[in-house]
Automatic annotation (TrEMBL):
Entry keywords, A to Z: Hydrolase, Metal-binding, Zinc
Organism from which the protein derives: Bradyrhizobium zhanjiangense
Protein name: MBL fold metallo-hydrolase
Names of the cofactor(s): Zn(2+)
Cited Gene3D superfamilies: Ribonuclease Z/Hydroxyacylglutathione hydrolase-like
Domain Metallo-beta-lactamase positions: 22-202
InterPro entries: MBL_Glyoxalase_II (IPR051453), Metallo-B-lactamas (IPR001279), RibonucZ/Hydroxyglut_hydro (IPR036866)
Lineage, highest ranks first: Bacteria, Pseudomonadati, Pseudomonadota, Alphaproteobacteria, Hyphomicrobiales
Amino acid sequence: MTEQNDTKAKAGAIIVPVTLFEQNCTIIWDEPSKKAVVIDPGGDVPKILDAIKQTGVSVEKIWLTHGHIDHVGGAADLRDALKVPIEGPHEADKFLLDNVVESGARFGMTGVRNFAPDRWLDEGDSVSIGGLQFDIYHCPGHSPGSVVFFNKDLRFAHVGDVLFAGSVGRTDLPGGSHATLINSIKTKLLPLGDDVGFICGHGAGSSIGQERMTNPFITGEM
């Protein structure tokens, strides 16, 4: 469990790696109110609930960046446990959420459930938790319905599996497209600004500026 506190002391974040995929389930909260959101509860729900308790925050929402099993496997159970709404991803990933059980079976993940979010998200939407507001960017390519959450004030984004430190999301899964993914990164993420830091779905986070300069998938496509 990795804790990160923003220098402006307006927000905090804890990363809880879950399942064999070591997916970065992320808890983000508004510091003054301690109201929080869980992003991409891919599984290991008891572990996530324990992290929430240790952090002392009040989770009011679940946000999903996309519909792949390693990011949504625990979403239905966590929604039931916390009695909070699920927001996201984009509706283009409905086919994935309709087949969570089938996807889980391929990876030996039992106890998962198909579900629908309480709200689909689209380009131009915004979501909030406490005093924090995040703008939604629809960034297809890794999956058709991938979305990115961006907070302009904090200069921070959660990008799911769209972009990684030194890499980009895989595009060999159903609905994936490398050309579409690179276009999403170039037209949606890079313009956010080099000073923007991000948490991604797996591994260490980075910044837009660092990836613009050193990420071979971006520099080779510029």
